[in-house]
Design a protein that fits this description.
alpha/beta, Rossmann fold, 2 domains, 5-stranded parallel beta sheet, 10 helices, globular
Length: 219
């Protein structure tokens, strides 16, 4: 393209995951050029604000399937899902929905559906316990929680699935923009939890895809 943009076009062949375009901080001109580059190739855009999308030239915007909740866009068509959902997403509260949506859209980009279990925070433990059997039927579970991040340890002690923790920036005061939940995930007494960065729904979905690929190579 140009010196300021160098796409890693071989990444999917190397690791099974294509390079996503992180839209935050990019100019409208850069985004328009990325949309126009290689129209036959599907591309996922993350952290694309509604303002950035609205500012795109009409022909570029028309090529994108944009979702304002997740702040993601797909250039090209989304594939048909490949079989039943193998990933469960468990969110502590409805404030975590933007992260849930980012996870869902990233999985959908690769042809996977997910089963989302919303508003399952441990302050009302019954909400999680009544969903426990259904959650545990999925080989990979992604948990999203802010505040004190207690959901990660509780869920890690209830299900035997591979568990990916996404600390969210939901909370106030000493929740510290998600750092308290991040520390809770990293110091969890539930063994074997994979932890991604604060609000990183995209990274959690990619971790789930890697886990699924290793566990079920033919999937």
């Amino acid at each position: 393209m140009s010196d300021d943009i160098r796409l890693d076009l071989e990444r999917e062949a190397r690791i099974g995951l294509a390079e996503a375009v992180f839209a935050a901080g990019k100019s409208v001109d850069q985004l328009a050029r990325l949309v126009a580059e290689d129209p036959a190739r599907r591309r996922l855009f993350t952290r694309l604000s509604a303002e950035q999308y609205a500012a795109l030239p009409p022909d570029a915007a028309a090529r994108l399937i944009y979702d304002p909740l997740s702040r993601t866009a797909v250039a090209g068509a989304l594939p048909e899902p490949v079989g039943p959902a193998r990933v469960a997403i468990v969110a502590a509260g409805t404030s975590d929905l933007p992260i849930v949506a980012e996870i869902e859209r990233t999985l959908a980009f690769y042809g996977h559906t997910a089963t989302s279990f919303l508003d399952c925070g441990v302050a009302g433990l019954w909400r999680l316990l009544e969903q426990q059997p259904a959650i545990g039927r999925h080989p990979v579970v992604i948990a999203v929680a802010g505040m004190e991040g207690a959901l990660f340890s509780v869920l890690g002690g209830l299900v035997g699935s591979a568990l990916v923790a996404v600390p969210s920036s939901v909370g106030y005061g000493v929740a510290d923009g998600g750092r308290t939940a991040l520390h809770a995930a990293l110091t969890s007494c539930a063994p074997g939890i994979t932890v991604v960065n604060i609000d990183n729904g995209y990274g959690a979905a990619c971790a789930a895809l890697r886990l699924l690929r290793v566990a079920e190579p033919s999937g």
